[in-house]
Amino acid sequence: MTRREFSASCGLGLASTLGAWKAAADEKGSYPIRRRKKVEVLFQSPEGHPNGLEATEEGLWVGEQISDRAYLLDWETGRSLAMHETQSSNTSGIAAGGGFVFMGANGPAHKRPRRPHDVVSGGRIVKLDAKTGKHIANYQTPDGGGVHGLLWAKHSLWITQFRPLKIVKADADLNLFHDFELPLSRPHGLGWDDGSIWCMFSNDYRALKFDVRTGKVIEAVQLDRTDPDPHGMTFWNGSLYYCDAGIAPGHKDNLSKHAGTICRIHL
């Protein structure tokens, strides 16, 4: 190969790389998007309808959408280490920290008999003792509506809301301190990544990483439509973990062959 031919091939390679980078950006070109390397299916949730994950040193907390139970699972095997009954209903989102477990009650219960403490309309955040499972309190969501994602990090509770689309920061008693707006709809699980927050947007099969001070999107990871249907999510040891609840909007079967699974996204 001559020097001219070598230079030309380098130029083509650079142009190709730049073209790929430009294509791998959001519609406004404001943040880079990378495709996930692989989605690894780890194990089934205890009841097959997980819609909330929270990573802790003790294990992986899972919120089951139909029964509204909170489970603590062994990271390696998925074996149940603890289980608590809760006053949540139509659970979507779970957080654990500060000695508490928080459950996102995303409206009235479906696919099970009604209970006295079920939400009638709107949404609720339920707090219980992490060790005993004893119920402590129920709180209204920040906007009074449904909720899909919760996270405990840096002594704060982070909450997704819909009206308007935001992530809201609160303390353990739901006093609000800070929020930032979201660019996509149907925000679900949240994960803490060294001062930043990941949020899974289920309609788009996309996870966005936010600067929590400004709300600026730092980067995105794109799933394939053939991957397990994304609902609850968390971040642990450099990887995103998420779950397929097996339930689609309208409380229908999502027809996913991965229903009930807990997965790891290799970045």
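The above is record 1. Record 2 follows with the same two-line structure.
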Amino acid sequence: MKQISNSAPTIFDVARLAGVSRGTVDRVLYDRGRVSQKTKDKVRKVISELGYSPNQNASSLANRKEYRFACLIPQFSKDDYWEEIYNGFIEGTESVRLASVCLDMYLYDQTDVDSFNSACSQILAGEPAGVIMNAVFKDAVTDFAHMLGARGIPYAFIDNKVDDLDYLLYYGVNPYKSGELGAFLLTNRQDVREIALIRLIRDSRHKADPNAARRHGFIDYIEENLPDCVIHTVFIQPDDPAGIMATLECFFSQHPDVRHIAMTNSRIWLLDDFLEKHPDSRRTVVGFDDLKKNLESLRRRNVEFLVTRHISRQSYQAISEFAECVIKGIRPARRNNYVHMDILHRRNLDDY
């Protein structure tokens, strides 16, 4: 068997040549978890032939080989959430000094699962050293993760994740807890009887649901603390301003007593036209993420609170640590890296 490069082998080289996941190699190395004897023998044979040792990091770095990583995130427009994530990835890649690191960006249409699957095929054809992605389409992401694992290609998640997969690391907020925090901010000052939870129509086949965990945290908090509160779900089409206005006017004409509104995605600003046309001093609105348009909504008092974090920082840290772990062939100090959540109000906005 030939060594795949002239640099010191890593745990990911072992996984790829043995045809198993990185996690399986780890379990064989440290004799933990369930692994069949046949798989153990195969992994140990590759380890012996490669001369792999978990402590050969210094030798690996000395060779300064090029590592190509693939980044799979949604397409974006100027000032979108994913533009911030993109910028963080670029800056984070430039910060890696352990070896020559290149990041290939693959952007997909988050309203179209076929677009996602096409990007996945391109990534697999390029045989990257690792993949970092988000989880808009849960089923498709799960299938892709299994294909990566079968090839011994490590992967990480940014912003959201699928919990039961063998990802190397995750950077982002704890989505469930961020939903709970948003619900608390919306309801903590008074007895709330009804809430309008505004959701986006993302794709015609209803495959995309990246904010599911945050929404579940929001709903669970309300059900636990305000069991008599009714949550009305209202769907809007994000690319249809006139349709948004008509949908909201219809809903609130039928439910005039609903004065508590939330969106668990990053586009609370989509409600601005309606909120300004129908002002109500008793209304409370909570959104997420400090995008430029959301901050303008907060400043104009259309929104009361934003639950956020420094968006680009999470992708900067994610690619920096992910690349280092892959290059060194080590596990991260912490698998789930939940970033700090911030609460923005117009009174602290200027200092953020």
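The longest strand covers residues 66-74.
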